[in-house]
Write a structure and sequence with these properties.
With 631 residues, the protein is mostly beta strands. Helices cover 2% and strands 45% of the residues.
Length: 631
């Protein structure tokens, strides 16, 4: 039997003749012998026995041949390669070589394990004999579970017992490790532990953090409120000046609940302001408010009660024209400090209004009152006395057609302010009447009116109804006019007619009232027919002929050229001076024919008339010479 000692990372034992694989660091005393029992037939013993260990990195087999060792070779041979052969033993443990007569298969080096929920998976620490098969059990897989390779996976907090079952041939042994998994402690971090705010200040956010989401709670919601995001509002429903924000970080499956923390919040009274919206009052005003506003109840005091008094509600009662100072005090409260404001109140005269409206008058009419009214005496002024005059009593006299503005002034007195109002006075021309009205021919109406004084013309209104609804109008500058009434057909119709005068002033037309209506029967129409012809034009007929406008001709083309006077050489493209110097010739510029341009004859297509145009008249109907009706 050959003996050898192996060390390194061993991953299991494979029971094959002369072949072994282990998966832990071998810890063997130098005096201990590793016994490898060979069970082989006589035929097998004659063959070389190979032991192979698989190298993890190179994946190559390392073969050991027993014949390589002699009895004299006693040194220890170390395998550096890491073995990686599948084996029933897959846990990470410390594996010892089998000693003769040894009965303990596995020994736990640590029986108690304390871990937290944030720790990574781990392996148990134990010694196990070479060639042992291992299996694992967890008493509580909600706490830890064991994978096939012996890795302990943390699942939850609590306690569990992991049992390792070791089997070697007919021997069995179990060992137990007690494992405690604890949640992780956490703490709450806060930016501050004390806060001071004034009542009425804006909502603010208090920030705190922990490993789990933090919650906020007010110790007294009559003092302050806080929402889930930490936004704090000072409510100050009672006079208590402080409260706590209670901060908690609840636990979960990983963390324990954090120790509770409190933030001391103190609030102080807010300053307030007194505002006033009205400081001017008129005589006669009763119980008019100052419009004073503050956060708390107010009291009022007048410095001059002969001018104005003020009641507890801030209502002003005016006495006479003048000024007084009103002192307003906003009371102290559990939320607000007291505040004071003094304003100057001005009492003025009463306002008044003038009752008057725009009026329309007729030229030459009897003077009439404007009817203006006010609290004090009135005065009047006309903007256009040529149109309207007004006396001190407001009597209006219409002079001529046009427009004028009357300014009315109510005088100032001890108790009333002065006020002005302007009204518009319109003056229309006198009306007129119809002198005569007749219908001497069909669809005709003749009218004569009484001549008006200083007018621009006359308007006529006629309708078939006495109410003049749907009537039409016409204008004439003279006193008589004949109208054609196109609406009248074959039957006579009764029309009602009114007239009025008008005067144009600065492009504006001023009209009198309408006169009393008069009636007239407008005669109907009898047709007088006339033949109507349509003229049809017949175009001329003919054909086109080709006509020569200009015959063909040749046009000579000349150019100015430099020519030698002696030899006739064309020197235009060369140097004539050089030529003259070389041969003693003279040269000059001449108009020389160089080409001929041929022009073709010019023709056009001319129209030749075969039959002249002519007109044809065709009877198409008849037309009434009076009304234009066609048949």
């Amino acid at each position: 039997m050959k003996r050898r000692i192996l060390s390194g990372i061993l991953v299991g034992l494979l029971s094959v003749s002369n072949v072994f694989v282990v998966n832990a660091d071998i810890d063997i005393n130098p005096q201990d012998e590793l016994i490898i029992q060979e069970e082989s037939t006589e035929e097998e013993s004659n063959d070389n026995v190979e032991s192979s260990v698989v190298n993890n990195e190179t994946k190559e087999s390392i073969v050991f041949d027993d014949t390589d060792f002699t009895e004299e070779e006693k040194e220890v041979e170390t395998l550096e390669e890491t073995a990686a052969v599948k084996t029933p033993i897959s846990s990470i443990g410390r594996i010892q070589a089998v000693r003769e007569n040894q009965t303990t298969l596995i020994t736990l080096l640590t029986t108690e394990y304390a871990k937290t929920m944030l720790d990574e998976s781990f392996y148990l620490d134990f010694n196990v004999l070479e060639g042992i098969s291992l299996t694992y059990d967890s008493s509580n897989e909600k706490v830890v579970r064991v994978e096939k390779n012996g890795k302990i996976v943390i699942c939850g907090s609590g306690e569990a017992v992991v049992t390792i079952n070791a089997v070697y041939e007919d021997q069995t042994q179990s060992v137990e490790a007690h494992i405690v998994i604890s949640k992780v402690d956490q703490s709450i971090s806060m930016s501050t532990a004390t806060i001071t705010k004034k009542y009425g200040s804006a909502k603010f956010q208090f920030k705190a953090s922990a490993d789990t989401p933090v919650t906020f709670r007010s110790s007294d919601e009559n003092v302050l409120t806080v929402d889930s995001k930490g936004y704090v509002t000072i409510v100050a429903k009672k006079n208590t000046k402080s409260a706590y924000i209670v901060v908690n970080a609840p636990g979960n499956n990983i963390y324990n609940a954090a120790p509770q923390k409190k933030v001391f919040v103190k609030w102080t009274k807010a300053d307030q302001k007194v505002t006033v919206s009205k400081t001017t009052f008129e005589l006669g005003n009763k119980n008019k408010s100052l419009g004073a506003k503050a956060k708390t109840g107010m009291s009022f005091k007048s410095s001059n009660t002969s001018v104005a008094t003020v009641n507890s509600n801030g209502q002003i009662t005016v006495k006479k024209v003048g000024t007084t100072k009103i002192t307003i005090t906003a009371k102290n409260s559990h939320r607000y400090n007291s505040a004071k404001k003094t304003v100057t109140i001005k009492v003025t005269k009463k306002s008044q209004s003038i009752i008057a409206s725009n009026k329309t008058y007729t030229v030459g009419a009897k003077s009439k009152s404007l009817g203006a009214k006010a609290k004090t005496g009135l005065s009047y002024k006309s903007s256009n006395k040529a149109v309207v005059t007004v006396n001190s009593k407001g009597q209006i006299t219409a002079k001529k057609a046009g427009t004028a503005k009357i300014t009315i002034t109510a005088k100032s007195t001890k108790n009333y302010k002065s006020v002005k109002k302007t009204v518009t006075i319109t003056v229309n021309p006198k009306s007129t009447t119809i002198s005569s009205l007749s219908s001497s021919s069909e669809k005709k109406m003749s009218i004569t009116v009484k001549k008006g004084s200083s007018v621009s013309g006359y308007q006529i209104r006629y309708a078939t109804s006495t109410t003049m609804s749907g009537g039409k109008t016409a204008t004439m500058t003279g006193t008589n006019k004949t109208l054609t009434i196109s609406e009248v057909g074959n039957k006579s119709i009764t029309y009602y007619v009114q007239v009025r005068t008008y005067k144009t002033v600065s492009c504006k037309k001023y009209c009198s009232s309408w006169s009393v209506a008069k009636s007239v029967i407008v005669k109907g129409h009898s047709h007088s027919w006339k033949e109507i012809y349509e003229t049809i034009h017949h175009e001329a007929t003919g054909h086109y002929e080709t006509v020569v406008i200009e015959g063909a001709w040749d046009e000579p083309l000349y150019e100015w050229r430099t020519i030698c006077n002696d030899c006739g050489l064309d020197l235009t493209e060369s140097d004539p001076v050089l030529h003259s110097a070389e041969f003693g010739h003279s040269y000059s510029t001449k108009h020389v024919k160089v080409d001929t341009i041929h022009h073709d004859e010019v023709t056009e297509e001319a129209w030749s008339v075969d039959t002249a145009a002519w007109e044809e008249k065709i009877l198409i109907g008849y037309k009434c010479t009076g009304c234009g009706t066609m048949k």
